[in-house]
Amino acid sequence: MTPRVRALLLPGTTLVFILAGLAAYASPLAFLPRWIWLAGLVLTGLPVLVRTTIGVFQGKLAADLVAALAIVTALILDQPLPGLIVVMMQTGGEAMERFAERRATEAVRALEAAAPRMAHRLRPGSTEDIPVERIAVGDRLLVRPGEMVPCDGIVTEGHSHVDASRLTGEPVPVVAQPGTRLMSGSLNGEGPFTLESTAAASESQYARIVALVREAQASKSPLQRVADRYAVWFTPVTLVVCAIAWFASGDPNRILAVLVVATPCPLILATPVAVIGGISRAAARSVIFRHGEAIEQLGQVDVALFDKTGTLTIGRPAVARILVEPPLSREDFLRMAAAVEQGSGHLLARTVVEAADAEGIALPVATNIREEHGQGVSGEVDGRRITIGSLAWVGEVAPRAGRQLAALHDGHHGLRAAVAIDGEAGGVIEFADRVRPDLRPFFADLHRLGIRRTMLLTGDREATAQAVAAEAGISEVHANLLPADKVAIVASLVNAGHKVVMVGDGTNDAPALSRATVGVALAAHGGGISAEAADVVVLADDLHRVTEAIGISRRTLRIARQSINVGLGLSLVAMAFAALGGIPPIAGALLQEAIDVAVILNALRASLPAGR
Questions:
Q1: Which residues are catalytic?
Q2: Among 170, 407, 455, 603, which residue has the least CB neighbours within 10 Å?
Q3: Given its phi and psi angles, is residue 59 left (phi above 0), alpha (psi -120 to 50 degrees) or beta?
């Protein structure tokens, strides 16, 4: 049985009993309705009473208490129909709240499912496939192209490029060569290499991320429902009115009438209806709230934290600068380099081709293309031999060009591709991530929404982080962070009483997304584990959808509170009439339904665009 079916089972059963009793009135079995309704009230009301009683013993003065008292009073006074109506509205509201119920273990399950299961351990003269649990420190492991690094270790043989962006947030592939330290969870690119393990799989970086996500979710305090916050004063008021009605008249039916009209269906219904409407409105803008709690919490955030790579930046390398050796022109240089790169499937090769396309350069067909995995590619263009790749490899293939190109390094520490033409230096292509456009208007919108404090959390270098922060207008920057460091910063803010939204897109962000009050994942390109760990998922590649989501959340909360206030105001007036004997129990139940309809219609405005 699915969770949705289970949620609807109790209110659906209650409705069946009500309809069965009404149908019996029109049949020869007209003496049965009361017994049908009484049996139905006992069967469907008991779960409500049990849950409410447990809550009371736990010190929770919830909105459910008045409903529970109405059900018990209806049973004592042998008036099951108003009691059944109360049960139906109570359980119906709970069913709507469960439509977006959070599944806290999904993120952990997704992380664990993506973890490597097998490793290739090297033995003298053979390779042995073993479960990752059997990896010991010092084992020599073969990591093939397309496989995930099974544990933390040091490369001892081979050469490749490794995608560590899910762990570090850096989009530029790591050059894997002897001496390179790699973390588990990194994805090998085009070449095989040998890794000497420095930690067991259970103690490696990927396993630590799984543990961090689990701990972050466990430490998150449950949200107190809006209904329960209002119940703190509404429930005692209801009990006082009941006492006044009893001492003034001695008529127990007046107590039931007061309880029926006071049953806080506006509390129970207004928030879930508005939340579902807000969720629907956000979905139309490609923003997915994974549960109703998220839309309530996002509307209250006051601090916003951001990952850098893939969040404030595009998330993949682009051509940042081209240095050309004269007398070659920049256009001819890029034309020949991109023509050869068309024959490679490497990420940086595609980036060079995209740069040429963006400048409208027509690319000739390169011939005699040869690619050295993890090193570079060479080919002929218009009769000239073009070699493009790492400086070390180009220096091996064309020593004279290598010496000349080394002089162009000029202190740059980022990713570069050296280019030799006919054995002579042609130039250097530098790669860097790109900042998203319109960052300042985005942060201006955040401030307009009441978020005064923004912070950049990144695993990147301090200088790069400061440059991005300056362009975006962020004053607080924390760089060189591991996933655990991000979690610690988020936790300190949450523990200080802030409502924190964390926006990220990578696996390394998953623990912080889970620990934040609300985690928002940018998942236009899939999202992976970050989308599983987040409370809100943005499907469009547009950072401005985050401010739209916050605006929708705040409007949803305003409408919910407005519906609650109007509904409770009408209920208080009805309670006064019921206490004076002007409203009998059944009429009170029907009147409460009319109030509920008004509350629901108003709450549905949350699904409409702002201004309606």
A1: 307
A2: 407
A3: left
